[in-house]
Design brief:
Layout lengths: L18 H11 L2 E16 L2 E10 L6 E2 L2 H15 L3 H4 L8 E8 L3 E2 L2 E2 L2 E10 L7 H13 L4 H7 L4 H6 L3
Length: about 170
Amino acid sequence: MKETKIDCMKYRKSTHLAGVDVEAIVSEKGKCLLTIKEAYYNTSVDVSGNKTDGYFLDFHEDVKGMVVNSTNRKKIAEILQQKTGCTSVESRNIGRWENLVIELSFDPNVQMMKKIVGGIRVAGLIVTLPSLEVDTKIFTQCLNAFKSGTYTLEQIKTKFEVSEEIEKLFIL
């Protein structure tokens, strides 16, 4: 089927999440919030035709996996440390990143090999998935309200009568 008036990057061949993918998600949804399913190190991974050793993230959402550079790994570790109070050594253990919801953005000023190429940046940790003790219906309503950007955390706490357990899941 012939398509017109589409993003010229829509059908490009890429194996992993790229800046243009994040831009498209932000354009469509307002924010690019993704939940880490798994973080891992692997060798000889095909990244758009090149064999690469590195750190990778897979997400619960239906998006490609992501190569995680040192800047973004450091940011995720810092946020995890702030959120959980764990040590810096513990926060760098990628096994602890599971179920973190991170916000990604596109930064046109990212450099690679001294050239400005643009790239993905981790903007921040939003929430962790709830434990079974938390009312998931209320949690989901709170999360959707928070993601929409329409409500502040204080407004959400009042509107949904947020429990202390749910309140601890959110970070500004």
